[in-house]
Amino acid sequence: MPKTLQKVHKHIAKKRGAVEALHEFSRDARRLRRATARDDRVARVSANMSRGRQTYVDRIAYFYETLPEDATPMSEDEMKDIVVRYINRSVPEIEQLQSERRKGRPPSKREEALLQRTDVENKEFKTGFWMPDLSQEAVIKSLRAWNGDWSGLSTMNFIRITKDGGKQPSVFPPKGMS
Known about the structure:
- The protein is mostly helical and 178 residues long.
- It is 57% helix and 7% strand.
- It has two domains: 1-56, no CATH class; 67-177, de novo design (two linked rop proteins).
- It is built from six helices and three strands; from the N terminus they run αααααβαββ.
- Helix 1 (5-16) runs antiparallel to helix 2 (27-66) and helix 4 runs antiparallel to helix 5.
- The chain is elongated.
- Belongs to the TMA16 family.
- One of its GO terms (cellular component) is nucleus.
């Protein structure tokens, strides 16, 4: 049985000639409603998934942009330095928002969001910050060839690096503390 609205609509149009002439409670009208509901549900789930993945795509995009052209495998200290720069990327904007705010006024929504994001990323860095393993030449090459897409990340190796200096392998996509 066809599942998408386009297929159902086409099938009913061939059979009847005019989809608008359907009775409200007919089998074909129910098929159209089910197909429409399914398409809406699939679109909603897809949008939620892409919204959830976007933070990780933005993170990898930052590493992609900051990686020098002649990049060589990095040490743990260099990777920790890049992570600290990533976490503190919004500090100038936070300081500007704080200076523009009048004394005694609550912080703006943007300022709260930036502070919360920085806090969450600092906590993640203490327990294990998920990032590509820039200590491997193959990962650096695949990051250079990355097209900015979620599916393009599956070819890279990832690690979790901690503030204290621990480094452990991780998986793609990130799940919990893997």
